[in-house]
Design a protein that fits this description.
By secondary structure, this protein is an alpha/beta fold. It has two domains: about 180 residues, Rossmann fold (3-Layer(aba) Sandwich); about 170 residues, 3-Layer(aba) Sandwich (Rossmann fold), CATH 3.40.50.2000. Helix 1 packs across helix 14. The radius of gyration is 21 Å and the shape is globular.
Length: about 350
């Protein structure tokens, strides 16, 4: 039976890079009210800002600098309760560190959507491993956002469902002109879209830029948890900073080759990159380092290359795209829309007794 609403605990900013929780919660909010509680911002006073994005209500806690209370405190919980109504209500976690929401709101049901192996990132909240264990034990449903994440949690039984991320197919298949910045560049454009953080192989980017001095490596997205000085200083390496999700198709339209230049480290061991399907829906040739989930699901559409020499060779090959790979990529993207994924999740939730 569906709850009459959800309160969602989110470790991402609702107005930041549009990722898995944004796509899913927006669709769930079309069926039942959704209140999103973000992690706190440092400020000069304690207050909760309430905003609205369509059918989603966002609670952004501001707390005094030096504040060391839990990531979700009594004030934020009371704000969320006032917006969502009295318990019982469903709680949706995108991070286990927000588990106190489940206790305070008497979660019925508790749904844990595992989108990343957060404990493997460079900067993590204290106690996240223990919180994850508790969330897995207590959740009525666990959705794993990729094959690797599913395998690592499959021991929790039938309540764990593998639901890799999807794509807004029509958004990325739309025929649009390349972004003016890219249209003005001479030479091939090798592009990446997403957060630039510890998961990116900065040496690989430098090697690629050096191998194609007449080309351009364009990194579209915000830099997070990474010293910008560590990024290669090259005339043909471009950093755009954050761009709105709605404007991504023109950027992709200007790519000759789409890149997934991920380092092979703890932070990437379990990732299932959302951008894969976005690139494929845009009809772009894609070159990726050997990320496990990409290899398992998309090796018929994506060129997989390990090490700089192989990656550069893969990019060079992708400059003459394979029609077969492009067609297979479109098939993958067409079969994995966010609408269909959210519908399955809602059906699973409604089936709970």
């Amino acid at each position: 039976m569906m709850p009459r609403g959800f309160v969602a605990g989110l470790h991402l900013r609702w107005d930041g890079v549009r990722q898995r929780p944004h796509h899913l919660l927006t669709r769930i909010a079309a069926e039942v009210p959704v209140v999103v509680v973000e992690e706190p911002f440092a400020d000069r006073e304690n207050r909760d800002e309430v905003r609205h994005d369509g059918n989603v209500t966002i609670v952004r806690p501001y707390r005094r600098r030096g504040w060391s209370a839990p990531f979700v405190d009594a004030q934020a919980i009371e704000t969320a309760r006032g917006l969502a109504g009295q318990a019982p209500i469903g709680v949706w976690l995108s991070t286990p560190i927000m588990l106190p929401l489940a206790d305070a709101l008497e979660a019925q049901p508790l749904v844990y959507d595992v989108m990343d192996e957060l404990a493997n990132f460079d900067v993590v909240p204290e106690g996240i491993v223990e919180a994850e264990r508790d969330a897995l034990a207590r959740a009525q449903l666990i959705f794993a956002g990729g094959r690797s994440l599913f395998r690592s949690r499959a021991a929790w039984g039938a309540k764990v469902r593998c639901e890799p991320s999807g794509v807004e197919f029509e958004h990325f298949t739309a025929r649009v002109a390349p972004h003016p910045v890219l249209a003005a560049l001479k030479g091939p454009v090798f592009g990446y879209v997403g957060v630039i953080d510890e998961r990116i192989d900065v040496d690989l980017i430098a090697d690629l830029a050096d191998a194609f001095p007449q080309g351009h490596v364009v990194l579209v997205g915000p830099i997070c948890k990474l010293d910008p000085a560590k990024l290669p200083r090259r005339a043909n390496v471009w950093l755009t900073g954050p761009v709105p999700y709605d404007t991504l198709p023109p950027w992709l339209a200007g790519f000759d080759v789409a890149l997934m230049p991920f380092a092979l480290n703890r932070a990437t061991a379990f990732i299932s990159p959302t951008k894969t399907l976005e690139y494929l829906a845009a009809g772009k040739p894609v070159v990726s380092t050997p990320i496990a989930d990409v290899c398992a699901e998309f090796s018929d559409a994506v060129i997989i290359a390990n090490g700089s020499e192989a990656f550069i060779a893969g990019v060079r090959s992708a400059l003459s795209p394979s029609p077969v790979r492009i067609a297979r990529g479109l098939e993958h993207a067409r079969a994995r829309t966010w609408d269909s994924i959210a519908a399955r999740m809602l059906n699973d939730i409604a089936s709970l007794t």
